[in-house]
């Protein structure tokens, strides 16, 4: 068989299979490009950007850490926020109620270090509970703070974390900075691997989005100058929104400001979701935020990408069975099996780049389950077409078309 004949066979027997093959290859190449860019950003581009900053820049900061429940390594995580190599800052822990399981550990830490503060926000009635908590904490912040910093309690920051997250804010061109988290599976279950895969996918997208479009934020680590917080109207936006980071991203984009991903604030954690179902629900919530605050992106390119990925993955078993169940005895390649196989192998090849971004425990198992992990991502997307409700930490937020919270159901 000639090379031309082989290529024709792999493309399939119809214009449909040939089109799907071409689009699938574009997706693979896009993932390759995004992942290679994320590697270059982490290792080269941000290094050059950071070298242009004045390392002595250290504005007074208020660090807000909203807490709910007791995540893994909770006490060590909270103490990490009191060990920064930084001259002037305060830490404010905040919960929704005095009865939260996090409160005893917070009070223990308060007795150990006088720099920490604690406030109880009360129950939210018009926005995400996390937003409500952070706004309550900011009302307690010192009036001379120049930068507001926000962090989740499921990460343990390093001693230079605060210095690094505020460093780009010395540039008037930058309004917000963000870090990210790097998930380290502890047991290597399919659920953990699925969570890790989705996390990497989002991270590579954020690196590209922040560099090209100046936007892309992760609420687990964010910093904003106080004057930008006021000018952008963040308090008003958060007081009615169902999420912190995506609503802030919308403000940044709308006002033509710029956000920067700080490569040195990608924090490793082994606190992962244990099951595929939990990861699907978690990623569904992330896509719901996209639907609510970046609807154009939710429809395009997210919709065609989800359709194509699901089609190509499910096409593999169909094409494999087709010769045995179809009366015309169609071959595997004629039914588009070649396009499906190359799509799956292409994304597996992309996954070989991931160790250049961070540690990858259970990497062999990760590669083995990679097609299923991508399919779970597709399932999460299509679940968002049937609802306007976001479920977060057991609370259901019903949204209107603009993404404002209209009803809160605590069960």
Explain how this protein is built.
It is a single chain. Helices cover 50% and strands 15% of the residues. Helix 2 (15-51) crosses helix 7, helix 2 (15-51) packs parallel to helix 14 (337-351) and helix 11 (276-293) packs across helix 16. It is built from 16 helices and ten strands. The mean pLDDT is 93. The strands form two sheets. The chain has a seven-stranded mixed beta sheet with strand order 3-2-1-4-6-5-7, with helices on both faces. Strands 8-9-10 form a three-stranded antiparallel beta sheet. The chain is of the alpha/beta class and 411 residues long. It is globular, with a radius of gyration of 23 Å. Strand 8 and strand 9 form a beta hairpin. It has two domains: 3-35 and 298-409, no CATH class; 54-275, Alpha-Beta Complex (Spore Coat Polysaccharide Biosynthesis Protein SpsA, Chain A).
Supply the key terms.
alpha/beta, 3-stranded antiparallel beta sheet, 50% helix, Spore Coat Polysaccharide Biosynthesis Protein SpsA, Chain A
Strand content: 5-15%
Total DSSP E strands: 10
Radius of gyration (CA) equals 23 Å
Under CATH, the homologous superfamily of the largest domain reads Spore Coat Polysaccharide Biosynthesis Protein SpsA, Chain A
Mean pLDDT: 93
Question: Quick gist of this model?
Answer:
50% of the residues lie in helices and 15% in strands. The chain is an alpha/beta fold and 411 residues long. The radius of gyration is 23 Å and the shape is globular.
């Amino acid at each position: 068989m000639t090379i031309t004949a082989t290529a024709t066979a792999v493309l399939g027997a119809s214009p449909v299979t040939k089109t799907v093959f071409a689009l699938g290859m574009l997706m693979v190449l896009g993932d390759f490009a995004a992942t290679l860019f994320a590697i270059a950003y982490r290792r080269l581009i941000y290094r050059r950007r950071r070298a242009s900053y004045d390392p002595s820049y250290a504005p007074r900061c208020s660090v807000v850490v909203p807490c709910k429940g007791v995540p893994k390594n909770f006490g060590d995580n909270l103490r990490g926020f009191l060990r920064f190599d930084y001259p002037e800052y305060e830490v404010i822990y905040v919960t929704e109620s005095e009865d939260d399981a996090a409160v005893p550990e917070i009070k223990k830490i308060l007795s150990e270090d006088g720099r920490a503060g604690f406030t109880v926000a009360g129950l939210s009635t018009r926005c995400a509970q996390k937003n409500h908590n952070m706004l309550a904490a900011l009302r307690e912040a010192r009036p001379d703070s120049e930068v507001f910093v926000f962090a989740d309690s499921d990460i343990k920051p390093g001693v230079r974390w605060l210095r690094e997250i505020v460093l780009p804010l010395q540039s008037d061109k930058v309004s917000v900075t963000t870090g990210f988290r790097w998930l380290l599976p502890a047991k290597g279950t399919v659920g953990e691997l699925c969570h890790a895969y989705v996390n990497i996918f989002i991270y590579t997208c954020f690196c590209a989005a922040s560099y090209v479009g100046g936007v892309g934020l992760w609420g687990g680590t964010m910093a904003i100058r106080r004057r930008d917080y006021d000018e952008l109207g963040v308090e008003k936006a958060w007081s009615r929104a169902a999420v912190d980071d995506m609503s802030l991203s919308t403000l940044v984009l709308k006002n033509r400001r710029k956000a920067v991903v700080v490569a040195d604030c990608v924090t490793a954690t082994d606190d992962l979701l244990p099951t595929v179902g939990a990861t699907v629900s978690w990623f569904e919530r992330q896509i719901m935020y996209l639907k609510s605050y970046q609807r154009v992106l939710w429809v395009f390119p997210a919709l065609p990408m989800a359709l194509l990925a699901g089609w190509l993955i499910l096409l593999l078993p169909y094409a494999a069975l087709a010769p045995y169940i179809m009366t015309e005895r169609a071959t595997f390649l004629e039914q588009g099996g070649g396009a499906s196989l190359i799509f799956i192998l292409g994304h597996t090849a992309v996954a070989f780049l991931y160790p250049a971004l961070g540690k990858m425990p259970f990497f062999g198992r990760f590669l083995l389950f990679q097609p299923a992990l991508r399919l779970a991502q597709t399932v999460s997307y299509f679940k968002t077409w049937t609802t306007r409700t976001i479920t977060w930490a057991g609370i259901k937020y019903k949204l209107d078309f603009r993404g404002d919270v209209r009803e809160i159901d605590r069960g």
